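dumping this here so i dont lose it
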């Protein structure tokens, strides 16, 4: 199979071609769906035999090479969900008695896995402030093995001191893991600044069509291989039909994400200037606390933002109800713009106290910018804001 992932080609080319089969079977331009659970034995190493659960079908192999090229890593493995990538990687790296340092706000499934499942295997974690490296050493234990962060946090799109994470982990012999889902490799390739394992929920931007659940793990070949062997046992493999859809989705990753970056940037600026909006969290805005870091590290600021209205929860609810284009739904990264009030939905599982500590206020609105025309989205946001009665909007003048 051809692999163009040697830095010679742009991500938009890699997204279409890296890892594609050579020769093309029957001349097929698109990788066919290999919907066969098992394959004839032809003398291979038993662990490399073709079998869907072992992620060794041609659909898995093409995707592995394509994602490795996009993430700028030696190898990658595609899996049945983002959580399969996250849980499988942590279970590969950590054994009974081990400990991991984690960022304070994490995707809910990851936080639940750390809090509810790993302690049963005597694997502990300590939450660190990702903006304050000076406090990290105090959280180390003799059995700390890894550090786990997210490129952009949900829903406040904060950017950890990612360079300090890599430097600290190197100094203390820790493996670094990063969930890059909100950025996608078009906007940020964590391996380029030294992260070991890069995880994606391919359910989001990577596939980009809101129609499958998938995940990926990218990094050095030996580490990715270890995650694969663990997942061979856990059984979190991706079905070939979903792999086919993911490969199709990846072909447009670069154009989709660049469009979403541009659209989100314009919408964020417009919202920030609106009198009914009290705060906008978007790393592309100069007002964002880590804007300078995001501008230095990222190629784009992404399609995710969150904001609050002057009128608080009542205004947020009325505004969301008045929107015509965005759907009220969790998840993100698809062609459809989505809106959600995290305290009432995606972060409802946290206690009010935990949310307050994480800075997730009840009135916060999260917005995933889709691929609709920016002008239509802007007009819809403006109209929904204008529809709020002045008292509800918090406008007194
Ligand atoms: N990581 C992030 C940042 C997410 O938002 C999600 C899902 O919402 C996941 C991981 C889990 O991915 P999946 O639903 O594909 O298992």
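and the seq i came up w/
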């Amino acid at each position: 199979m051809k692999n163009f992932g040697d830095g010679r080609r742009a991500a938009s080319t890699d997204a279409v071609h890296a890892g594609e089969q050579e020769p093309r079977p029957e001349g097929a331009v698109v990788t066919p769906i290999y919907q066969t659970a098992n394959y004839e034995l032809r003398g291979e190493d038993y662990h490399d035999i073709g079998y869907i659960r072992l992620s060794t079908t041609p659909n898995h192999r093409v995707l592995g090479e394509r994602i490795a090229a996009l993430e700028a890593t030696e190898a990658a493995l595609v899996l049945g969900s983002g959580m399969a990538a996250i849980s499988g990687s942590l279970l590969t790296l950590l054994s009974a008695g081990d400990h991991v340092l984690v960022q304070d706000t994490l995707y809910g499934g990851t936080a639940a896995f750390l809090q509810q499942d790993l302690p049963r295997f005597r694997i502990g974690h300590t939450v660190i402030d990702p903006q304050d490296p000076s406090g990290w050493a105090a959280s180390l234990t003799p059995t700390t093995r890894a550090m786990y962060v997210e490129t952009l946090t949900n829903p406040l799109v904060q950017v950890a001191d990612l360079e300090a994470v890599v430097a600290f982990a190197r100094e203390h012999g820790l493996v670094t893991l990063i969930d890059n889902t909100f950025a996608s490799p078009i906007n940020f390739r964590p391996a380029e600044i030294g992260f070991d394992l890069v995880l994606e929920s391919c359910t989001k931007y990577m596939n980009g069509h809101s129609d499958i659940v998938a995940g990926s793990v990218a990094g050095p070949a030996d580490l990715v291989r270890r995650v694969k062997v663990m997942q061979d046992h856990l059984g979190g493999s991706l079905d070939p039909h979903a792999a086919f859809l993911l490969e199709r989705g990846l072909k447009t990753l670069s154009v989709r994400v660049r469009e979403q970056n541009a659209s989100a940037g314009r919408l964020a600026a417009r919202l920030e200037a609106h009198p009914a909006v009290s705060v906008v969290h978007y790393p592309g805005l100069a007002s964002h606390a880590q804007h300078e870091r995001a501008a230095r590290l990222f190629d784009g600021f992404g399609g995710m933002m969150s904001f609050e209205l002057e009128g608080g929860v009542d205004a947020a609810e009325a505004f969301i109800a008045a929107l015509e284009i965005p759907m009220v739904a969790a998840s993100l990264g698809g062609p459809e713009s989505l809106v959600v009030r995290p305290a009432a939905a995606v972060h409802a599982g946290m206690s009010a106290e935990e949310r307050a500590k994480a800075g997730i206020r009840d009135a916060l609105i999260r917005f995933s910018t889709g691929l609709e025309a920016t002008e239509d989205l802007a007009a819809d946001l403006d109209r929904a804001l204008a529809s709020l009665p002045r008292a509800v909007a918090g406008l007194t003048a």
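The pocket of pyridoxal-5'-phosphate is lined by residues 81-83, 107, 109, 150, 154, 179, 181-182, 201, 203, 213, 215, 331 (CB under 6 Å).
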